[in-house]
Design a protein that fits this description.
This protein has about 260 residues and is α/β, with parallel strands linked by helices. It has a single domain, classed as Rossmann fold (3-Layer(aba) Sandwich). The protein is about 35% helix and about 15% strand. The protein has helices spanning about 10-25, 40-55, 80-85, 110-120, 160-165, 185-190, 205-210, 235-240, 245-255; strands at about 1-5, 30-35, 60-65, 65-70, 100, 130, 155, 180, 195-200, 230-235. The chain has a 7-stranded parallel β-sheet with strand order 1-10-9-6-2-3-5, with helices on both faces. It has a 3-stranded antiparallel β-sheet with strand order 4-8-7. The longest helix is centred in the first third of the chain and has 18 residues, at about 10-25. The two termini are about 15 Å apart. Bound molecules: 2-amino-2-deoxy-6-O-phosphono-alpha-D-glucopyranose. 2-amino-2-deoxy-6-O-phosphono-alpha-D-glucopyranose binds near residues 134 and 141. Belongs to the glucosamine/galactosamine-6-phosphate isomerase family. NagB subfamily. Pathway: Amino-sugar metabolism; N-acetylneuraminate degradation; D-fructose 6-phosphate from N-acetylneuraminate: step 5/5. Its EC number is 3.5.99.6. InterPro entries: Glc/Gal-6P_isomerase (IPR006148), Glucosamine6P_isomerase (IPR004547), Glucosamine6P_isomerase_CS (IPR018321), NagB/RpiA_transferase-like (IPR037171).
Length: about 260
């Protein structure tokens, strides 16, 4: 895992956006895995800026979001479809028919989840999967205990996660849906590259467990230690509990020039 520590979330997200822009510019049919949550918002802002000011086009891009709430109308401001529209999709030239999210209103959950997996495979797999991390180490909505081999499926959200995601529901965790559809850890592990964003003190323990802890389903993000191409882009606060942070800094500062991606 490549660990990149930046002073602030904004700086980290600007760097992350450059990596994504490079993939968009160099692949004929780029496939991006997208995430919601507050962590990627400055990254989306930077992509929108690049689209407006630097001609970055999403015309040939296909996207797959990690997750969506069950039973929530896509027009609800808390749905991940709405969040993506507001922060990214409506500002760029991404063809909507290629912007995929799981359909939380489906009446056939197993069939729809299998179809989501099939669509990802038919698009050629995900080139880069953007990820946030929950304070309990969850990836997408794969809460602690999720199987490392899991695929897109329904999951039950526990109170802490509903509390953390309550803002668009008037701050009331009871209004946050109890179920969601989420890509599985097995799905995420098949992406050719993962870009994980983690910011703030509240993520420091989860970031430490993910990077330096044992690989365990108790910290779902720790499975990324088995992925061959992960960049963890974190700020100083999120890095504060890392035992080897000086090492990560030195490695990053001394990368051979041909290997630099920023
Ligand atoms: C939710 C999302 C995750 C996200 C996490 C952290 O649970 N399903 O994909 O990583 O929240 O969110 P934030 O970036 O707001 O801290």
């Amino acid at each position: 895992m490549e660990v990149v520590i930046k002073p602030t979330q904004d700086e980290a997200c600007r760097l992350g956006a450059r990596l994504i822009a490079r993939i968009i510019r160099t692949r004929p049919a780029p496939v991006l895995g997208l995430a919601t949550g507050s962590s990627p918002l400055p990254l989306y802002r930077e992509l929108v800026r690049m689209h407006r000011e630097e001609g970055l086009s999403f015309r040939h891009v296909t996207t797959f979001n990690l997750d969506e709430y069950v039973g929530l109308d896509p027009s609800h401001p808390g749905s991940f479809r709405s969040v993506m529209e507001e922060h990214l999709f409506r500002h760029i030239d991404l063809p909507r028919e290629r912007a995929h999210l799981p359909d939380g209103m489906t009446t056939d959950v197993p069939g729809h989840c299998a179809e989501y997996e099939r669509l990802i495979a038919a698009a050629g797999g995900i080139d880069l999967q953007l990820l946030g991390i929950g304070a309990d180490g969850h990836l997408a909505f794969n809460e602690p205990g999720s199987s490392f081999r899991s695929r897109t499926r329904i999951k039950t959200l526990w109170t802490e996660t509903r509390r953390a995601n309550a803002a668009p529901f008037g701050g009331d965790p009871d209004k946050v849906p109890r179920h969601c559809l989420t890509m599985g850890l097995g799905t995420i592990m098949e992406a050719r590259q993962c870009l994980l964003l983690g910011f703030g003190r509240s993520k420091a323990q989860a970031v430490r467990d993910m990077i330096e802890g044992p690989v365990t389903a108790s910290c779902p993000a720790s499975i990324l230690q088995f992925h061959e191409h992960v960049i963890a882009l974190i700020d100083e606060d999120a890095a504060s509990l890392l035992q080897h942070r000086d090492y990560y800094r030195e490695v990053y500062e001394n990368k051979p020039s041909w290997q630099r991606w920023e």
